[in-house]
Design goal:
single chain; 64 residues; 19% helix
Length: 64
């Protein structure tokens, strides 16, 4: 079974609020996906809307 990434839940909640201007009510780790370097979460906001959040602790690279 997959384990959640080593990113504190409080940090995930703060980032979700800061970057998306949404307050997460629930944050549930889902052991899904093919990327073993990332974690997938189901987040429900104050408004009751559910979101899928994929997080990783590795650097992201953008190409143009």
């Amino acid at each position: 079974m997959r384990e959640p990434p080593s990113i504190p839940e409080e940090h995930l909640r703060a980032c979700f609020q800061q970057h998306y201007d949404l307050i997460p009510v629930t944050l549930e780790f889902l052991p899904l996906g093919l990327d073993y370097n990332a974690g997938v979460y189901r987040v429900v906001s104050e408004q009751g809307t559910a979101y899928l959040l994929k997080v990783t602790s590795r650097p992201l690279f953008y190409s143009r």
